[in-house]
Amino acid sequence: MKQLTPNLAVENVAQSVKFYSEVLGFTLKMCVDENRNPGDTMEKGKRYLWANVMHGSVGMMFQQKQNFEADLGVRVEKTGASMSFYIEVEDVVLLYEAVKSQAVIHKVLESTFYGTKEFYIEDPDGYILGFSSRG
After folding, report:
1. pLDDT digits (tens, 9 = 90+) for 100-127
2. Residue 26, exposed/middle/buried by CB under 10 A (0-12, 13-18, 19+)?
3. Which domains does the chain carry?
4. Would you report the helix, strand and coil content of the chain in percent, each value rounded to 5?
5. Which of 5, 60, 80, 121 has the fewest CB atoms in 10 Å of its CB?
6. Which residues have a Cβ under 8 Å from the Cβ of 57 and sit 6 or more positions away?
7. How far, CA to CA in Å, does 26 sit from each of 4, 9, 93?
8. Which pairing describes strands 27-33 and 38-39: parallel, antiparallel, or unpaired?
9. Closest among 76, 73, 57, 54 to 65, alpha carbons compared
């Protein structure tokens, strides 16, 4: 195995890309519009089926919920999950200060008994993201 890149079912791909880009500093690498045209930028007012964002070696993919269902043959009752994504960062304190007023905080920044500092937020579709660094 070489890499894990989650593909999340979302209500609005452009909204997810905006949150991950503007709040968390991810960069859009590729997107596909409703006419199945691939690109590397998003236009306002267009509907998107899929997108991939990256921040360093961390990648996330977002797929419009109905398109996700059609592609994979599964039913998505609601977006969000009974799991969290745990992401190691260089400076969790700096990241927390940058995002705390722009995201729903589920767990404030705190030091753990196992030697990390971490916090958890919610993205626009209800997915839980945890951020951590040592020290």
Report:
1. 999 999 999 999 999 999 999 999 999 9
2. buried
3. 1-78 (3.10.180.10), 80-135 (3.10.180.10)
4. 20, 40, 40
5. 5
6. 3
7. 16, 18, 18
8. antiparallel
9. 76
Amino acid at 26: F
Write down the pTM of the prediction.
Answer: 0.91
What CA–CA distance (Å, rounded) separates 49 from 65? 8
Within 13 A of 124's CA, how many CA atoms are on the CB side? 18
Give me the DSSP letters along 68-79. HHHHHT---SSS
CA distances from 32 to 43, 49, 50, 57 (A): 11, 6, 5, 21
Which amino acid, one-letter code, is at 92? V
* Predicted confidence (pLDDT) per residue in 53-109, tens digit: 999 999 999 999 999 999 999 999 989 888 899 999 999 999 999 999 999 999 999
Find out whether 76 and 68 touch, Cβ atoms under 8 Å: yes
Residue type, 70: A
Within a 10 A sphere around the Cβ of 91, how many other Cβ atoms?
A: 13
Report CA 112 to chain centroid distance, whole Å.
24
Nearest to 62 by CA among 32, 42, 92: 32
